[in-house]
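Weekly sync, protein design subgroup
Attendees: M.S., D.O., the rotation student, P.L. (late)

Item 1: inverse folding check
M.S. brought a backbone from last month's batch and wanted to see whether the design step gives back something sensible before we order anything. D.O. pointed out we never logged the input encoding, so this time it goes straight into the notes. Structure tokens as presented (157 positions):
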């Protein structure tokens, strides 16, 4: 049986981009969290997925949501990545954003935004896999914020 720490160490060798997933609940409150478990699924239809720990405060909000947004972070947004990874109630205080058509927060200066409608939810062990259909997307030219071996990394130009 594979040891959890060995599994984590091996997977840490896979560099990934960093996202902040945002959702607005039925009462109009914003919720968001840093997620590196994000990937594309399909071009037709355009689908993505995020994996969210069942113990995360964001889990139930995202699970219940019919729409959500993915903010792909740029290199200048390391502080935002850390902020949304922490367990705190004021994650959005002082953070610049606009709203997508569903009301989810699109963080200022992100590398890209994806506005999604929930397509499916799957059991993923201690995580839930949320598949979203991408309804709208936009990108800008900037360098991505990366996560590698437990820390932040950069692509050299």
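Designed sequence read out in the meeting:
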């Amino acid at each position: 049986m594979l040891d959890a720490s060995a599994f984590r160490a091996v997977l840490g060798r896979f560099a990934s981009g960093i996202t902040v997933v945002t959702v607005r609940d039925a009462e109009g409150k914003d919720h968001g969290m840093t997620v590196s478990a994000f990937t594309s699924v399909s071009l037709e239809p355009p689908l993505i997925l995020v994996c969210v720990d069942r113990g995360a405060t964001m889990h139930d909000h995202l699970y219940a949501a019919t729409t959500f947004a993915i903010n792909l972070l740029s290199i200048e947004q390391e502080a935002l990545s850390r902020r949304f990874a922490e367990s705190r109630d004021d994650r959005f205080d002082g953070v610049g954003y606009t709203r997508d058509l569903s009301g989810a927060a699109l963080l200022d200066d992100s590398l890209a935004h994806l506005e999604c409608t929930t397509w499916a939810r799957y059991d993923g062990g201690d995580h839930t896999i949320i598949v979203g259909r991408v309804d709208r997307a936009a990108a800008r030219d900037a360098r991505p914020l990366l996560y590698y071996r437990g820390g932040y990394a950069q692509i050299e130009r």
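Discussion: Helices lie at 4-11, 59-64, 78-85. DSSP finds three helices and twelve strands in the chain.
Action: P.L. to compare against the previous round before Friday.
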